Amino acid sequence: MDITASNPAARTNRRAATGELSRGFGSRERYGYLFLAPWFIGFFGLSVGPMIWSFYLSFTNFDLLTDPKWVGASNYIRMFTTDPKFMTSMRVTLFFVVLSVPLKLIAALTVALLLNRGMKGLPIYRALFYLPSLLGASVAIAILWRQIFAGNGLVNKFLALFGIAGPSWISNPSYSLWTLIILSVWQFGSPMIIFLAGLRQIPADVYEAASLDGAGRWRQFIKITLPLLSPVVFFNAIIQTIEAFKNFTPAFIISGGTGNPINSTLFYTLYLYQEAFGFFRMGYASALAWVLLALVAIFTAFAFLTAKYWVHYD
Predict the structure, then answer these.
(1) Nearest partner of 71 among 292, 286, 295, judged by Cα
(2) Which of 283, 295, 291, 288 has its CA nearest to residue 58?
(3) 1, 73, 227, 290: which sits with the fewest CB atoms below 10 Å from its CB?
(4) What is the DSSP letter of 1?
(5) Helical spans, DSSP H, in the chain
(6) By CB neighbour count within 10 A (0-12 exposed, 13-18 middle, 19+ buried), where does 251 fall?
(7) How far, in Å, CA of 168 to CA of 154, rounded?
(8) What are the angstrom distances between the C-alpha of 19 and each of 3, 14, 33, 69, 234?
(9) Are 136 and 183 in contact (CB under 8 A)?
């Protein structure tokens, strides 16, 4: 039997206590939203809002000086039908992604395997190998890279010691893109750290059991290391692919913002930059940006769809 049913004072006290709890919860909730307010302002003001505005601009002609003029799908039609530089930039970018990402992951995994052997001074080596990932995308490193691969750069001076006359790697369309691929592979420190963390999670007794069964190092790597490390490989592949599609600074600095020689270093992001801030075709640049987003989304979706055939989480 509820004693408050026949006790008005008890009912009053219960309502007062419930009101205090409600007011207290509401107050805490308001404080929570207050602390979250900077994030909400940044998310909607600097991310969602500009994305919606960019999507609208992709269907307009806009030059920053006059009001946007609605043109429908003309920007997208032009992109896929009458713009040769779009196809060139797409080809250069895909070539860069397909080559640089696997080579970077191979270099990162190789160094991680070497560091995982328990060598002395591991923190020092780990920091030294990670350093290029921090500096590689900077303007200073891009300028240095341009000097290294110039006609009279360090690479050609080294080759001259053996009587080899090297070309001007930067200004030769046959080699210019390869210099950027080498620069990207040199920045293997970030995936290397993640690979090393994954290798440390593989139990040592698994390798001991395989050794007792007569499995050599190569067979252990194929049958044990790669399957157990496949989630880490998958994660690194996704992250590095997205970063490769976004690559901009080295191509801009090394080519002087032109994508030369003969558009051999015209990355998609560099072409987008030229359209937006070189020719002030903001509407067309917005359309290019959304196509890039769709391209990255397609690659990512394909990776997730195929992951079930080679990524093992057990």
Answers:
(1) 286
(2) 283
(3) 1
(4) -
(5) 8-43, 49-57, 74-81, 84-115, 122-135, 139-148, 154-160, 176-186, 189-200, 204-212, 217-220, 226-245, 249-254, 268-273, 282-306
(6) buried
(7) 11
(8) 20, 9, 21, 56, 52
(9) yes
Label residue 308 exposed, middle or buried (CB < 10 Å: 0-12, 13-18, 19+): exposed
Confidence band of 121 (pLDDT split at 50, 70, 90): confident
Query: Could you give the CA distance from residue 3 to residue 182 in angstroms, rounded to a whole number?
Result: 81
- Asked if 142 contacts 253 with a C-beta cutoff of 8 angstroms, the reply is yes
CB 159 within 8 A of CB 165: yes
Q: How would DSSP label each residue in 96-143?
A: HHHHHHHHHHHHHHHHHHHHTTT-TTHHHHHHHHHHHHHHTTSHHHHH
Q: Which residue in this structure is represented by tokens 């250069």? A: 92
Structure tokens at 10: 């008890």
Neighbouring-strand partners of residue 76 = none
CB under 8 Å to 145, separation ≥6 — which residues?
179, 183, 250, 254
In the numeric block, the tokens 């194929």 are attached to 222
Give the distance, in angstroms, between the CA of residue 110 and the centroid of all CA atoms in the same chain. 21
Q: What is the pLDDT of residues 226-279, one digit of tens each?
A: 999 999 999 999 999 999 999 999 999 988 889 988 999 999 999 999 999 999
Please determine, for residue 17, whether its predicted confidence score (pLDDT) is greater than 90. Answer: no
Categorize the per-residue pLDDT at 21 as very low, low, confident or very high, splitting at 50, 70 and 90. very low
Dist. CA 58–CA 74, nearest whole Å: 9
Q: How far apart are CA 31 and CA 239, in angstroms?
A: 36
Q: What is the 3-state secondary structure (H, E, C) of 44-72?
A: HHHHHHHHHHHHHHCCEECCCCCCCEECC
> Which pLDDT tens digit goes with each residue over 137-171?
778 888 889 889 988 888 999 899 888 888 889 88
Residue length of the chain: 314
